[in-house]
User: Fold these one by one.
Assistant:
Number 1:
Amino acid sequence: MNNELKLAVREYLPRLYAFAYQVAGDRESALRFTEALIAEVVEAGPAALEGAPSHEEALVGRMGRLLESHLPRHAEHSFAILESILRSDVTQEIDEDLANRPSDVHALLWELKRSCLTAVLGCLPPSVRLSFVLVDLHGYKIKQAADMLGIKESAFRVRLTRARKRLEDYLAPRCSHLDAMNPCRCGGRLGIALEAEFVRPPPHRLDVPEEPYDAAQACRNTRVLYRSLPVVKATDEALAKLIARL
């Protein structure tokens, strides 16, 4: 592998991992897809960076196409399943031992907020999900993102409109991060989420902010809410193992 390609992959590796997490839905899948992307890039050589205006667009676009081609065509789960996991009971107290460890509760509440919103994204078909992640989370222009995925701009716009509407329709009447009067509050759902193993203790605290998960005022905008989530990070050790594959 030439030096230019290796440097490009190293530079964008954290972003590629975070992107894979947002689309695939969990840390293990994000790592697996990042490993698969590196294998593709190593096989393609310098050609992996060709055909795109920038190294970033070449690599993120390649990751997007990899995700779309390998994830199931339909959503992995439905809004109804998400409802049954998180809203089967109004509230459920966390156990006393955990309640006496405020730093662990703090980390778990952030993990629940991110996991829940990522799971809502996972209720969209991958092609629709990708449009929202590329434009509304990563800030690419619509034509730019369509080119990265190799599809027509008109088709991309349909996907993006569908993604925004479905997310808004589901979250607007439920999520307290959008409206403080809404019924679904992370603090009241943590016990349920832990019992259902919907959320687990994060493997590290690198992507757990210092401020409380509910410090920000309700934003009433789905796109702003998603952009406010802390970006998921891989450990330096995991990144080093990925780089060693180059």
Note: The chain has a mean pLDDT of 92.
Number 2:
Amino acid sequence: MITDVHHVGIAVLDMEAALRFYAEALGLPLVKRGEAPARGAQVALLAVGGSYLELVQPTTDGSPFAEHIAEQGEGLHHVALGTDDVRTLVAALREKGVPLQDAEPREGFTGRLSYLTPEAMDGALLEVVQPPRELSGGSAGDSPVSRIDHVVLRLPNVEGACGRMGEYFGVETKRTFERGEMRFSFLRPGKVTLELIGPKKPPSEPRPGPSTPAGAGLRTGLIAGLAFEVEGIDALVSALKARGLPVGEPHPALQGGRIVSVHASGACGVPVAFIDFSDSPR
């Protein structure tokens, strides 16, 4: 029932500063902006390929996004998995004993949605959403950014998390490898890849696995990085440097093509990378 990564949520301190980077510097089209009073926040939605970025600025001290920023600083907040039947999906998750913040789907800024608790994925916050038709696939417009290539989740137990992604959502692990003391696993719920990274030997503390999903375990995982596919990486780097943004130099990427990063300080707390596959077969 999962169609793809619908959007990536980013908690920001200053909406206008966030829009200057994501909308102006990257050229991503703003498709919706408004208030979410029940969540104590103002929200902006930007299209990027078939997915979106959801920028959220808390407007009240009681907002869950204010709590997130107080605990972790501004930056990546959640990954929303799209579905065409959120009611049935949430009912199935409840039946499996998956810990949910929203036991029933509710109306949200991006559609009918339900958050899992952070413990469901060892601290990385996931949402499931059934978007309205007008938010069922964006476009990057004239931006050099064509789509979200992958989202990085740093987790204490990659193998257990892969098992839960399969059991909860039917999302299979496509590839796993180990390098040094680290394990890397790649899952594709649609066109966007989820890259799960963690220690080769997970900690000994009990954590929710495929057969024990209840909220055992520490909230040590997080959504750790965001990578966009681009065309014309050199021109993009020049434009970002002209704006005074902390961007590196393009270099060969492990997955082919060339990659460059913008320091989190220049992207509202988000470690952002850009990958250009123009001169490399995928």
Note: The helical segments are 15-25, 64-72, 86-95, 158-169, 233-242.
Number 3:
Amino acid sequence: MHRHIIRHGLLAVLIGALLVGAGSAARAGWPGQHADRHPHYRFGVVEAYYRPGDALDLGVGWERIIFEWAAFQPNGPDEYRTEAVPVEWLADAQRAGREVIGLLKNTPLWASDIGKLGAPPNGLHLPIDDPGNYWAAFVRRTVEEYGREWGINHWIIYNEPDIRPGDLGWYEFDGDVEDYYNMVKVAYRAAKSANPRAKIHLAGMAWYVDLQAGRDLYLERLLRVAANDPEAAANGYFFDVVMVHTYFDTLNVWQMIRDIRRILHCHGLYDKPLWVDETNARPSRDDLADVPPGMFEISLSQQADYIVQAAALSLAAGVERFGVYRLYDDNYTPGFTEPWGLVRSDGSRRPAFAAYQNAIALFAGAKLVQYKYSDHSSLVVLHKDAATIYVMWARRVPPVRFHVMARAADETATGVSVTGATRTVAPERVPTVENWWYVFEAPGAVADPSGRVIVEGSPVIVVAEGPPRPVWIEVNGRQWRFG
């Protein structure tokens, strides 16, 4: 997502199809929670370079930067303007220990017959060492130079190519599925020839536009094209990683990742890593920003809730890396552009900043992640070092009471809020149930005016020593063991 425009109406189609503050809080933390703020490779944010200090405070280990072909070579294949990506951005990332993930996009006007930034370039059919294959030459030079100088090894090929002319008021790739496949194939070969460590990522896709148009999902169509290429299977279909874009709806995070894996598995691609490089729930209510009207009514606290839910669910679904779109509201126009940032345009931090900071500190290094759910409740269990983290929330409007078993009457656990405030929790007796239990009340989800739940209820988090324990839930007076 790069254009700052209102894109909510069609997102409702996706939700309908899949639905079948922070700064002043006490932050004592569970032991070790904030003692080590070094970046963690698994968590990232889009365009950290706008606010490197905030990115450092978050603890993110990677960021995504656009390498726009048209900015490197605006006038012809013989020029190469390295100022297209300021060296300061790369130096800041290197000093902070953040890995840069490059996104290659936007064909120069001179490189195609139709003269559009989103056009497939001329020469794709030529060998990758032929100077007439402009795309191969650009990819090869960029991957070689930035791999050697800055250690950049991961490259995303374009962004949301499934958005077609007429789907929205804008689109980024003007070619068809076969054209995109050829772009990926050429990039894969050119990149590997320049840097054997290079990894090629499929673009994150919008998904909802295909649902709206009644088309097969773009990834399915793309892999069908690849399956007809006799060279594809021996080369892993010419890509290494699949990127995921998922927005607004808590359930969509889990569902979309599962759907992507299903499509990959249908083609025998069982080992392709998935990365979430764009996710967020843009707030529609923020007293410190003039937010344009949108389809979804999302509060600042719901945005924070969503970040924790999305991170927990992504890890449970086996995602290799997780990133939020985006760090900062740059070029913000009140009342027109959408405030996606964890940091506002004036530099103040939304509660979602503290929520992501907290999620990174809590979830980094988790060895075992499980997801259990019912109609009314969700539970993500993360095992980390000698402790277990329970992330629990209500999926619907009724609140849910969670019971986590205690080992003894004098044992204590740590409760952690979405934004990182902590409290010591003592166990208690529960009527009709043996043993001692930590009892947590998870508030019900807030439905939109139509009665639909978009962001599920605010998570309750508890950290307890030892391996996972039994968890019981109670909804509307009924109790049962979870999972």
Note: Residues 372-481 form a domain with the Immunoglobulin-like fold (CATH 2.60.40).
